[in-house]
């Protein structure tokens, strides 16, 4: 028995070691190991793993443990208590991190450490599911958002010469998706032990992530050539010649009545086109998550059990997301305006088909299509920001775009909670929203065209 156990342990060790070696070889391919991108990919996988464990713990308390009507109220309360303050904090996160160009590794480590502490604290109160859980969930959301913003602006710093930004981002995203899928199974097993165990697992994951963040290359903290973006919706004031002002020599402030309103409008028309389309796709994803979660629990498709129906739709969405990330690494980095418009068109058609012929096949299809469209569309948006926004202001552009997309998801989720649980009605509303934005996007595409060289964004 001892020899058998020893042999089994030896074989298991070899399998684990071989798997780790293959994962390391995949993340370090095409120069990613030399540039340091491989370490960021592994860190992002840990981040996604920990976030999924927290999601499993919260979903089991807020959603699955109570009747449908009460669950809708709990989720609505969760969105109100967490998202309302987040809506006020989100515009602050980007500019705050923008002022810490030399502390990005520390910022990522602190976001991990904060979630580790909050996960451990939540493990003690998650069983009751009371209001004390919601402020802690807000803290997790803010820390996760801060990590996401920093991660977006760090990728160009670690970009290998043999990879485009689209391929690098797709590789990071795909690693996060794979980690999320594994974490869903691990979280389910831990939940069988007790509702607090997925959170204790998340604590260990985020502690490891905290240590790993400090092992990122020093290039992450480099701010060479960067300046803080001041984005304006109006034309430059008289006398402005489009010169970028350095950090130590700020431009004189215009008078209060002449100060233009801050927005993302001046990063270039192509970026705005993609940002608008992506906001619609994130809105659709948020809507589908909340609406289908409650609808399929109350009226499962195809006579399936509610848990099986939800699992099938979640699997389809995850598969579509992975396909979108994989396609992003294969597509040539040309015409991202066309790509993001095509993804919005595809998502709109799938949603309209599901509204007209509501059933198992169409619901699964719209989940997979929305996941793929959102994933590939986000990669195209990143490519446009990389192409059209000067490096000196790219940090601010990423921060502000990420905030807008997060709030679009929240808006879609809120609509999904408020609508009656009628499949055809809900999907018709979603198709109408996506269709309206699609027409707007097509009109902008005809005016902007497909660029292969950077536009000339106006920045102060």
Short description:
This protein is mostly helical. The protein is built from 14 helices and no strands.
Radius of gyration: 23 Å
**H/I helix tally:** 14
SS strand fraction? under 5%
* Shape summary: globular
SSE succession: HHHHHHHHHHHHHH
Task: Please estimate the helix content.
Answer: over 70%
What integer is the average pLDDT?
75
Work out the number of β strands.
Answer: 0
Question: First CA to last CA: what distance?
Answer: 74 Å
Could you please describe the fold and organization of this structure?
The structure is a single chain. The protein is mainly α and 460 residues long. The protein is 72% helix and 0% strand. The chain has helices at 2-27, 32-35, 37-62, 68-98, 104-123, 133-154, 165-193, 197-213, 269-298, 306-330, 336-356, 360-388, 394-418, 423-448. Helix 6 runs antiparallel to helix 13, helix 7 (165-193) packs antiparallel against helix 10 and helix 11 (336-356) runs antiparallel to helix 14. It is globular. The protein starts with a helix and ends in a 12-residue tail after the last helix.
């Amino acid at each position: 028995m001892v020899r058998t156990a020893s042999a089994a342990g030896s074989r298991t060790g070899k399998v684990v070691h071989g798997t780790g070696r293959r994962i390391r070889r995949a993340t370090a391919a095409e120069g990613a190991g030399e540039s340091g991108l491989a370490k960021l990919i592994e860190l992002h996988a840990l981040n996604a793993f920990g976030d999924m464990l927290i999601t499993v713990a919260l979903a089991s308390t807020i959603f699955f443990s109570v009747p449908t009507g009460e669950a809708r109220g709990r989720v609505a309360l969760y969105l109100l208590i967490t998202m309302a303050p987040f809506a006020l904090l989100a515009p602050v996160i980007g500019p705050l991190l923008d002022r810490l160009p030399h502390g990005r590794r520390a910022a990522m480590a602190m976001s991990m450490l904060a979630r580790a502490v909050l996960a451990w604290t939540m493990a003690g109160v998650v069983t009751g599911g009371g209001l004390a859980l919601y402020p802690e969930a807000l803290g997790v959301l803010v820390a996760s958002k801060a990590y996401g913003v920093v991660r977006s602006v760090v990728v160009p710093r670690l970009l290998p010469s043999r990879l485009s930004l689209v391929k690098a981002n797709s590789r990071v995203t795909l690693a996060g998706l794979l980690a999320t899928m594994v974490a869903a199974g691990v979280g389910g097993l831990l939940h069988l032990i007790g509702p607090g165990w997925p959170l204790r697992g998340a604590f260990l994951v985020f502690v490891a992530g905290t240590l790993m963040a400090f092992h990122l290359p020093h290039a992450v903290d480099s701010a060479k050539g960067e300046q803080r973006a001041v984005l304006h919706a109006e034309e430059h004031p008289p006398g402005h010649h489009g010169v970028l002002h350095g950090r130590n020599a700020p431009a004189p402030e215009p008078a209060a009545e002449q100060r233009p309103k801050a927005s993302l409008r001046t990063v270039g028309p192509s970026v705005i086109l993609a940002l608008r389309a992506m906001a619609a796709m994130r809105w659709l994803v948020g809507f589908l998550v909340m609406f289908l979660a409650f609808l399929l629990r109350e009226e499962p498709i195809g006579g399936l059990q509610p848990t099986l129906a939800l699992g099938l739709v979640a699997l389809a969405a995850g598969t579509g997301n992975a396909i979108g990330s994989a396609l992003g690494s294969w597509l040539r980095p040309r015409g991202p305006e066309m790509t993001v418009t095509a993804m919005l068109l595809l998502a709109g058609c799938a949603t309209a088909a599901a509204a007209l012929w509501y059933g198992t096949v169409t619901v699964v299809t719209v989940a997979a299509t929305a996941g793929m469209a959102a994933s590939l569309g986000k990669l195209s948006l990143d490519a446009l920001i990389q192409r059209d926004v000067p490096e000196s202001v790219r940090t601010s552009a990423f921060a502000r775009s990420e905030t807008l997309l997060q709030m679009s998801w929240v808006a879609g989720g809120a609509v999904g909670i408020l609508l009656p649980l009628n499949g055809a009605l809900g999907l018709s509303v979603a198709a109408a929203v996506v269709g309206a934005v699609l027409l707007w996007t097509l009109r902008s595409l005809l005016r902007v065209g497909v660029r292969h060289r950077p536009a000339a964004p106006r920045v102060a």
